[in-house]
Write a structure and sequence with these properties.
Number of helices: 2
Strand content: under 5%
Structural class: little secondary structure
Length: about 325
């Protein structure tokens, strides 16, 4: 304990006077074990270099790989459950079928990596770089990808159910037939993405930008689409039943054969540029009024009687035009 404290004290002193200090690496024996292809769960491998190595089916569960270099390494079928890979370098690595459940990949670089059939349930990937990554059939159920970059990623039939993708950048990503049910995509950038035939039921896309996206035959049932941009997007055959499109922008969108039954369309900008009915102002809750004198007196009735000859509510407000879809 004394030696560890002394080491950090000396390092801090040297850094203060401008003398560069070496970054403490992981355990050399553990690193040598891994480089020979042997498993090493719970090992300290921080800052170690494993680039271009073949480590298929290796067991590194719970390993500490902070800032480790795994560029172009092959880890097919490897088990890295609960591993710490914060700031790790995994560019163009082959992670086909890897187990990364509950792993921490915060701000890790996975540019061009192959994660086909990978399991990343409950994984932490905020700020991670997955640009141009191969994510076909990958599982991201309840994973945290807030602020991550998936630009031009290939994620057809991937499973993002209930994942956190707030503020994520998915420009040009291929999400054909992907499962995004219940995912949080608030303020996400999906411009030019392909979401055809995807399951986006109950997704939260408030404030997201889907301009130019392909959303044909996609289910958006019960989705939150408030303030969402669909400018120039293709939504032909999409199902928006019971969704909330309040103040969304569908200008120049292609919307043939879409389903909008039960959808909220107040303030929406339609494809032809016209506006939907204004959204009602939400007034503050009125304070409880004192009952009139005599109310509640013995013998007084509190039952409300229907107004005579009351007409049922109309299907649409007078003068309100139907949605021009």
């Amino acid at each position: 304990m004394f030696r560890i404290s002394l080491y950090f004290a000396v390092s801090l002193t040297l850094a203060t006077v401008g003398v560069p200090t070496a970054v403490p690496a992981g355990d050399p024996e553990s690193a040598a074990l891994v480089k020979s292809g042997q498993s090493c769960s719970m090992c300290n491998l921080r800052y170690e270099r494993f680039s271009n190595l073949t480590l298929d089916y290796i067991d590194l569960r719970g390993a500490y790989l902070f800032n480790a270099n795994l560029e172009r390494a092959s880890l097919q079928g490897a088990n890295l459950e609960s591993a710490i890979l914060v700031l790790a370098k995994l560019e163009r690595s082959d992670l086909t079928g890897i187990n990364l459940t509950k792993a921490n990949l915060q701000r890790a670089s996975l540019y061009g990596a192959t994660l086909r059939d990978a399991d990343l349930q409950l994984a932490q990937l905020p700020g991670a770089d997955l640009e141009a990554a191969e994510l076909t059939h990958a599982i991201f159920i309840t994973a945290n990808l807030e602020g991550a970059s998936l630009v031009d990623a290939f994620a057809s039939e991937a499973n993002f159910r209930s994942a956190n993708l707030k503020g994520a950048v998915l420009r040009g990503a291929d999400l054909t037939a992907a499962n995004l049910e219940g995912a949080d995509l608030r303020n996400a950038d999906l411009r030019g993405a392909n979401l055809s035939m995807a399951n986006m039921s109950k997704v939260n896309l408030e404030g997201a930008d889907l301009s130019g996206a392909k959303i044909s035959h996609t289910s958006l049932r019960g989705a939150n689409l408030k303030f969402t941009k669909f400018i120039g997007a293709t939504l032909e055959g999409a199902n928006l039943k019971s969704s909330n499109l309040s103040k969304s922008d569908l200008h120049r969108a292609r919307v043939g054969s879409i389903v909008t039954q039960g959808a909220e369309l107040c303030g929406v900008r339609y494809p032809d540029g016209t506006k939907g009915p204004p959204c009602p102002d939400i007034s503050p809750v009125s304070p409880i009024q004192e009952p009139p004198a005599g109310a509640g007196a013995p013998g007084a009735t509190t039952e409300s009687m229907p107004a005579p000859d009351a007409a049922p509510p109309p299907d649409a407000a007078p003068g309100e035009a139907p949605a021009p879809f």
